[in-house]
UniProtKB/TrEMBL annotation:
GO terms for molecular function: endonuclease activity. SUPFAM superfamilies: Restriction endonuclease-like. It holds the Pfam family DUF559. Residues 195-272 form the DUF559 domain. It comes from the Bacteria. Keywords: Endonuclease, Hydrolase, Nuclease. Gene3D superfamilies: VSR Endonuclease (3.40.960.10). InterPro entries: DUF559, Restrct_endonuc-II-like. It comes from Microbacterium trichothecenolyticum. This is Very-short-patch-repair endonuclease.
Length: 279
């Protein structure tokens, strides 16, 4: 049976993520004539002279190939499923240092990669994503992304510490922890460091984890959108159990952490002033 070589080219491009360099296909044994045939038959499209794409390829990767950039920073973080404060109004990309990028509406980051980028890559690896995030976003927002990466085990702390970070990234590499389940749990201790008391995350008490324990007895629980129905009932039960054990519980919401921080800070200051954090 005769092999449809143009179709084989299209299948290989799809397997490579939908966007690929013809030079790579040639190295793998596909002929230039077969690649041209796949383009002429509409099985793939030519994005740029040195890139071709499947008809249904990822629009972010197509845009990166067309502009000579790589998807990075907060845009790549969101695509990796990391916690981000909000979606940026424009995509964030990085310049890979090859050729001249085509003008783009995206935010372009020009930092040198912390891990070398292969010429065939259109989306940054996790270390380069963290590097661009650290340079681009405010400290607590960048830290939330870094801690989300650790929490999801996309990178480990020892690997981070061995890389030659600079600027804010070098500070983050030594300060981040893997315990935050969301950015809210990153923001909280960062904003309260000034208080000078131990703030321990994810402590087990009475068979359940609490988000934060301040001092010996002050528990702070941060409610996300999932704290409804049966989860809400269990939260109420556990709060009562904690109080019977001598703990004091302050429960706060996403909106308070993100938009009404002064309310939370005032409550905690009043609780500490009354000694509710002491055994």
């Amino acid at each position: 049976m005769q092999i449809d070589r143009a179709r084989a080219v299209a299948d290989r491009v799809a397997a490579l993520g939908g966007v690929a360099r013809p030079t790579r296909l040639v190295r793998e044994g596909h002929g230039r004539r077969q690649i041209a045939d796949a383009v002429s038959r509409g099985l793939v499209t030519r994005v740029r002279r040195d890139w071709i794409a499947s008809p249904d390829a990822d629009e972010y990767l197509i845009a990166a190939a067309r502009t000579g950039t790589v998807v990075s920073c907060i845009t790549a973080a969101e695509r990796l499923g990391l916690w981000v404060h909000e979606r940026p109004d424009r995509p964030h990309v990085a310049y890979p240092g090859r050729g001249k990028p085509v003008p783009t509406v995206a935010v372009v980051h020009w930092q040198r990669a912390i891990v070398p980028r292969h010429p065939d890559v259109l989306e940054d690896g996790i270390e380069n994503v963290l590097m661009t995030v650290a340079a681009c976003r405010p400290y607590e927002e960048a830290r939330a992304v870094w801690e989300s990466a650790l929490n999801k085990r996309l990178v480990d702390r020892r690997r981070l510490e061995r890389l030659p970070w600079v600027g804010t990234a070098s500070r983050l590499a030594t300060e981040v922890t893997p315990w935050a389940d969301s950015g809210l749990e990153t923001y909280f201790p960062v904003r309260l460091r000034w208080i000078g008391l131990p703030i321990r995350p994810q402590i087990w008490i009475d068979g359940h984890r609490v988000d934060f324990l301040i001092g010996d007895r002050l528990v702070v629980q941060i409610d996300g959108g999932h704290h409804v129905g049966p989860q809400r009932s269990e939260d109420i039960r556990h709060d009562a159990a904690l109080m019977l054990l001598g703990y004091h519980v302050i429960r706060v919401s996403y909106d308070q952490v993100m938009h009404r921080w002064h309310e939370i800070q005032e409550q905690i200051m009043q609780a500490v002033a009354q000694g509710l954090h002491r055994a």
